[in-house]
Amino acid sequence: MVKISVISQKEKEENRGCVEFQVFSFTNKIRRLTSHFELHKKDYLSQRGLRKILGKRQRLLSYLSKKNRVRYKELIGQLNIRDTKNH
């Protein structure tokens, strides 16, 4: 299980509602599920959950890129996420 500790414990408690924390949390779930599928290739219910999480993360990233492009660029750089579109 690979977790990224970009956000400290104190920041986690204070900023659970901020967009960056939610994207960070979804990214950890996505990476955990991706490693799960290496062993369980036919777990279709979890694959559906993964697609839902991917959609939520994409919507949050789209919102962040429209509101604050600098914070968006920093976040995708820290989490090593591809930039899907140029807005």
Write the layout of secondary structure elements.
Blueprint: H1 9-14, H2 19-39, H3 44-67, H4 69-79
Helix pairs in contact: 2-3, 3-4
What labels describe this entry?
about 90 residues, mainly alpha, elongated
Helical proportion, percent range: over 70%
Q: What profile does the largest beta sheet have? A: none
What structural category characterises the helix and strand content? mainly alpha
User: Overall mean pLDDT score?
Assistant: 87
Q: What percentage of amino acids are in beta strands? A: under 5%
- Which word captures the global form? elongated
Number of contiguous helices: 4
Identify low-pLDDT runs: none
Radius of gyration from the alpha-carbon trace, in angstroms: 14 Å
Distance between the termini: 33 Å
The count of strands amounts to 0
The helix-strand sequence is HHHH
Describe this structure in words.
The protein is mainly α and 87 residues long. Helices cover 71% and strands 0% of the residues. The chain is built from four helices and no strands. Helix 2 runs antiparallel to helix 3 (44-67) and helix 3 packs antiparallel against helix 4 (69-79). The longest helix has 24 residues, at 44-67. The mean pLDDT is 87.
